[in-house]
């Protein structure tokens, strides 16, 4: 810029020897600047230095972090309600009327949520590209709040149809809002710790899932299952209010940018300087209506392979979480008692006000059973006469499906030990199933920052897939504590999500970002819609058991993800190494590649540190 100013001061006016030159409008830029009169030359530095509008001020830096925090809190409410059925698997099973198809109906809650999103996020991405991420964030948050309200009403009236309708409405906004917030962060953090921003967003947002896993079972056990769902409605309402606040911040920021740009251009025109014309042209280019219509046919093979990897790997994470409570209850916290364990008096209540005397459970060796982590033994048959507090009850064969711990007859009168143990087990399972989300929330910001500095996104995605193979194989084939496998699940989730979503922006052109996020979300939902039905089918054909066949299915998905990860690395290397490079610009070098190459050239460590800074 200094060179331009020196040229403007030192250049002599160019004389025209040929009158025909008066009609020429294309002249040499240097001579044009040199021919400027002295007064415009004084204004020239002001016009040129206003190009620094793209340089972020301290107030703008603060604003984008405020937008990030508000966006995270919006998604916290969305994730809280999204995962409520998973946390309430057993309470909903007890609360709903006796239903032999409970597992089918339960998994349908996730299928009807995901099925519309096979198509909707694609259009949602186009809407985001056309109308802006902040506007769409509000619209999708409202749909989520409406859907959760209908879902809670359905549970209140014990109607599967209304509940499924509510989850369908929630699905219209639940995944598309992910497209909106991903695009919003890509706009605010372009070139500025994008992976870190995504990591922080995932961390804080997923705290909603953690909070849900802890709070919802407690509310359901202490009050009722519908009450836990209405808590979700409150979270969604807060999300709508925060989305409105984000729109206000985004609109004010964009308006300030346009005013500043227009002021600079107007000042340039007043001074008679044609250098203001590019600013006006740039302002016109920034208008939303000037955005081109995007098409999925503009995406390359690297994007599609990344989408296939997303489909396989997320099948081991999100559909698993849907039934995690049931898996953990069956495997660890509420196991089926040994066959030789029975009540001392099999035709009498086990514990409660209807119990006439002590009725312990013993095995063939007359030892107390079944022990910690097992379901207490139920009576085999009952013939209870009516009392002032309870109606008469008679059955020749009692199963766990007959027990409704929401009714005082069972929770206080006849099987208090069973209901207390079940409540404790569901709350324990809720806390344990939160481990992956807690690990992900803690590690994602750190991993995002690390990936910004070291690259190797495709390699990290492959590593996460391999770790998931070990996780689900352990859960399927061993009786080890679930803590260690779930720590691995959380690490895999954090690694994969930290590299997946920032990688999307590296595989498509900038103007296609919203459509790309919508497309990959649609592909992801193909699995999220179909896999719950696969899980329900495997469960029903395995004598209503999750272990081992359901877990082996998840292990198979992880193996497929690992294979796709290897192919992703091969293709990335052949197409410029965009995913594994540090800056994502396809320089063909990750952190270790650069470090080794520069060490071979004898570079000083300080030079290496400056070279790898993102």
Q: Can I get a quick summary?
A:
The chain has helices at 2-10, 29-34, 38-49, 58-82, 84-87, 89-95, 102-114, 120-131, 133-156, 160-174, 176-188, 194-222, 225-270, 277-285, 301-314, 318-322, 324-333, 408-414, 416-432, 435-454, 457-477, 483-507, 513-540, 549-574, 591-600, 605-611; strands at residues 342-343, 361-362, 382-384, 393-395. The protein is an all-alpha fold and 614 residues long.
User: By helix and strand content, what is the structural category?
Assistant: mainly alpha
Sum up the overall morphology in one term. elongated
Number of strands: 4
Percent helix among the residues?
A: 55-70%
**What's the level 1 CATH class of the largest domain?**
Mainly Alpha
Which terms summarize this structure?
single chain, 614 residues, mainly alpha, Growth Hormone, Chain: A, 3 domains, two-stranded antiparallel ribbon, two-stranded antiparallel sheet, 26 helices, 2% strand
Describe the structure.
The protein is mainly alpha-helical. The chain folds into 3 domains: about 1-55, no CATH class; about 60-330 and about 430-580, Up-down Bundle (Growth Hormone, Chain: A), CATH 1.20.1250; about 335-370 and about 375-415, no CATH class. It contains 26 helices and 4 strands. The protein has a two-stranded antiparallel ribbon. A two-stranded antiparallel sheet has the order 3-4. Strand 3 and strand 4 form a beta hairpin. Helix 8 (about 120-130) runs antiparallel to helix 23 (about 515-540) and helix 21 packs antiparallel against helix 24. The longest helix is centred in the middle third of the chain and has 46 residues, at about 225-270.
